[in-house]
Predict the 3D structure of the following.
Amino acid sequence: MIQKQRGGGDARALDSATTPPDGRPMAEQPKWRRDFPIDWAQDEYVSRRELVKFMVLTSAAFTAGQFWILFESVFRRPAAAAPGVAIATVDELPIGGAKTFTYPEGSTPRLLVRTGAASFVAYDQQCTHLLCPVVPAVELGRLHCPCHNGWFDLETGRPVAGPPQRPLPRVLLDVRGGSVFATGVEESTT
Amino acid sequence: MPVPATLEFFIDPGRCIGCQACIQACTECDSHKGQSMIQLDYVDRAHSTQTVPVVCMHCDSPTCAEVCPADAIKRTEDGVVQTARKPRCIAYSNCVLACPFGVPKMQTRMNLMMKCDMCYDRTSVGLKPWCASVCPSQALAFGTREEMARLRPQATPVNTFQFGAQTIRTRVNMMVPREAAVEVVDVTAAMHEPTIGHAILDDVFAEDPDGGDL
């Protein structure tokens, strides 16, 4: 910092440098002493060049970020659909019954709920508030998070009461041949 | 704006009459938040009315700043050591313990070390610090060296202090008798001398000069 100042900084500030206790010049002092100068001017010192450099680089980073977002929104291809995975048989669950599964393999637990004779819904089990597992309250048509009394609509996964603001990620299902297949995950932030 | 280098602070304890005007005036300084940063020390209270005003000496190598673990004490280019910077001060009190002159004081209500900053808002625009402007006997004086030489022909300013092996040069001057012809105020040298009018020695290991048991 001090070396930098010597280049084009305020020479007067340097001349009045505080004397180190051993009296040797500042150039011979340990690095920590140069890093933590007692002199106000050196402590506060930001050269015009450093400020401009910081401003330009920060602005450039923001601009590049904007272009990256634009690129992503125009050119990003939807992720290849994961192959359907059988997660349950229709007979396995009674109406109103539920089970957890993972899809794709290694995911966070998902919750499959049978809401009717041939209707199933599946959501991520983590509450979108603070990741507590939600439990089905089928008779109310809702999913309940007991941690902070959050409620989600069973049909859509949208938050209806309590702290959660975002809907539960929905697992897309396909019921065929007496089995329930998970075919994709629909993330939504609204 | 820095304090002009020609303007210096002069302390002459021999002129102090203990009126405490400096203490009151110090609280008036805009940058002192109503706190007084001057202490008036009694030299030997039982036997003498002599007092000594203690203000910051503004060392060239400020020990308070050297020991600050939070890097909060800074010295401006004119040599004035400023009060700890509020965003940094962690009220660790290292400076309070380390200062050889005993100047910094911890304001526990604010968790901030505050010390004499030579009334920076005044001296940086060429005014006298509050204490020096109110001192009736000019024990605390602020002005040029030439002024002091003219007004006090029998005294001379000294700004080097010796504390054992540590030599401290300060921006503030102590007035000493001109005939003494000293260049250094040896502070610790007097510690082994018996205090005036006391039968008790400061140095408990020293022999009693009267020869009796202490």
